[in-house]
Amino acid sequence: MRERLDRRPLVDRLPLGVRAGQPAAPPGKPEAAPAPSPGTPARTPPNLTALLAEAHRLSDAQHPDAGAAWEAVARRAAEPDGAAAGLSDHDRACVEDHRAMYGSLPPAEAMAAFGRAAALYEAAGDPGEAAAATGRAAYARALEPGGADGALAAIAPVVDRILALYADGAATARQAGAALVCRARILARLVQDAPDEAAAESALAGLEQGARELLAFTEPLRGKPGVATRTAEALDLLGDVAAFRGDPHGALERYERAAAETDGAGLSWYAVEYLAKASGLAAQLEEYGRAEAAARAALEHGAAFVPARGRARLHLRLAEVLAGNGQFTEAVEQALDAAHWADESGEGGTLGAHARHQLGGWLLRLGRPDAARERARRVLEIHGAGEPDETGEERRAEAEALLEYVGRRTGA
């Protein structure tokens, strides 16, 4: 028994398609640290200088962990030993800026945080970053119900100011690009909020113009720090315009270019969303080799950075692409992973149930009716308690249909 227990596990996890009891580590709720035992030396607070250096490094690299690094700076500065005195106005601005960008704040709170960041950047003598933060505040306003029109009016003078600063050498290309990106995102929001087809087409024309102006600004600056992500976002928005207008091939080409732009700049984590879009569109066009390559690249780039829910969706996307191309054995493996990550994210009853339903159908295609039946029963168990919502009713109906189909195929 001791010999067996001492063996190294063959794998770190083994998804079997059954529902996890609960997420292993609920997002945003890390386990509490154990209480120190008597006589344990007091914890040495992390060095603020080192935390600031790491936060600035990650920000300059446009790394996804930059938000967490600035949060660590904020926690250290809030400790009662006076560490906050070591923060400059620019550091305080970065804390507010990143809290608004990464903190999942409601739009009104994000606007206020961006506003404080802009004032601190201005006080620190960085008018370019102050204007960029003001642009981000305008975009946050667009996320409020009915706020897009006001946001578009608010960002117009910001764009004029930051382009003038850039022309005078008082703002960087990355900062100017940020304001242009925010304006383009606001224009995209107007398309989403359009009340009818005529309004949508008008908003779409504005979005196309805004995205092309962003691209015209960034393309000549290829290679400058922070510009690749702006170029990629312009291409992505132009892809959305093409897709909206019924040009899937044009949209696919732009999504792939957007992914290549960030990947080529060493910012592969930014490519995940573009690759996922490209994969889905290529699958719709039945270009399965292209769809599979994009889905695999998205998983490869996003594995270390995408949260559990995103990983579940990426695995499910690859599974569906593989199944569409008749590769059911690997599709089953990817669907098992999708179900696992859906459970980890707390979405076992929605995304996880859908993955299990798909898994059941593919197991049946592989001649494994007993396994298919078990997966369908699991979906029914998930949605069997209480009053299911509309999605639950749909998943139950799918599972019941699968059980009935398996029964007809096997005579059971």
Report on the structure:
The protein is an all-alpha fold and 412 residues long. Helix content is 70%, strand content 0%. It is built from 18 helices and no strands. It has helices spanning 2-5, 48-60, 66-77, 89-102, 107-123, 127-142, 148-167, 173-193, 197-218, 228-244, 248-264, 271-284, 288-302, 308-324, 328-344, 348-365, 369-382, 390-410.
List keywords for this structure.
18 helices; 412 residues; globular; single chain; 0% strand; mainly alpha
Radius of gyration: 25 Å
Low-confidence spans: pLDDT under 50, at least 5 residues?
20-36
The count of helical stretches stands at: 18
| String of helices and strands | HHHHHHHHHHHHHHHHHH
Mean pLDDT, to the nearest integer, reads 85
- Quickly give the structural class: mainly alpha
> Roughly what fraction of the amino acids lie in strands?
under 5%
Shape: globular
* Helix content range: over 70%
Largest beta sheet, briefly? none
Number of strands: 0
| Alpha carbon gap, first and last residue | 41 Å
Please specify the SSE layout and strand pairing.
Elements: H1 2-5, H2 48-60, H3 66-77, H4 89-102, H5 107-123, H6 127-142, H7 148-167, H8 173-193, H9 197-218, H10 228-244, H11 248-264, H12 271-284, H13 288-302, H14 308-324, H15 328-344, H16 348-365, H17 369-382, H18 390-410
Helix pairs in contact: 2-3, 3-4, 4-5, 5-6, 6-7, 6-8, 7-8, 8-9, 8-10, 9-10, 10-11, 11-12, 12-13, 12-14, 13-14, 14-15, 14-16, 15-16, 16-17, 16-18, 17-18
